[in-house]
Amino acid sequence: MISGREVAIGIYGAWRLLRFDRAAIRYFDSTLDGLWKSFYAALIVVPAIIVLRVLFVAANPEVFSEAGTIRIATVFAIDYVYQWVLFPLVMISLADRIGRSGQYITFIVARNWSQVIQIAIFLPAALLFEMSGADDPGVGGTILIVAYLVTWVYEWFITRSALDIPGLTAALIVLLGVAISFAISIVGEVLIGAV
């Protein structure tokens, strides 16, 4: 079980990384126990993810009209688990290949806790986008794009700092993470029947 203090330290470290403080890496528990505990971040952000999923379905009723609520919820739940598990599994091998297996745990711990900060950035942007309407996104669309860019730069900084690698290598790892996330989402939409 994780304590409230451990959660606070993880989120505080993630906040410091958002401020481009490389020394914030020291706030993360780089033990195997710390790795498993960092996945509690998935439980912290799940309410916001549910809000985002409901918004997505509500904004696209014609796409999801054939699928029932149970099917949509089940596929989204499986999608969510894969979003949290697949990238860390891929990174085990990749970290070894780039000679950074010793920094793997620190990286995943920092990345997991950063999801709390990222959802705090992304959720308001998604709500503004939804309120502005998809047909004429205007300011809402611009804010959503900026939110994506901010979270990608944030992940790039975490990757570069935690793995202690060059910027280009870190950018490629972030792109890999985005590609994996996108692929999982597409598979989920196919299973729902939205594609």
Shape: globular
Number of domains: 1
| Tally of helical runs | 8
Q: How much helicity do the residues have?
A: over 70%
Low-confidence stretches: none
- State the order of secondary-structure elements, H for helix, E for strand: HHHHHHHH
Distance between the termini: 40 Å
Number of beta strands: 0
Q: Which structural category fits the helices and strands?
A: mainly alpha
Strand content: under 5%
Radius of gyration: 17 Å
Largest sheet: none
Quick structural gist:
Helices cover 79% and strands 0% of the residues.
Task: Walk me through this protein's architecture.
The chain has one domain. The protein contains 8 helices and no strands. α2 runs parallel beside α6 (104-132), α3 (41-59) packs parallel to α6 (104-132) and α6 runs antiparallel to α7 (138-163). It is globular and about 50 Å long. The chain is mainly alpha-helical and 195 residues long.
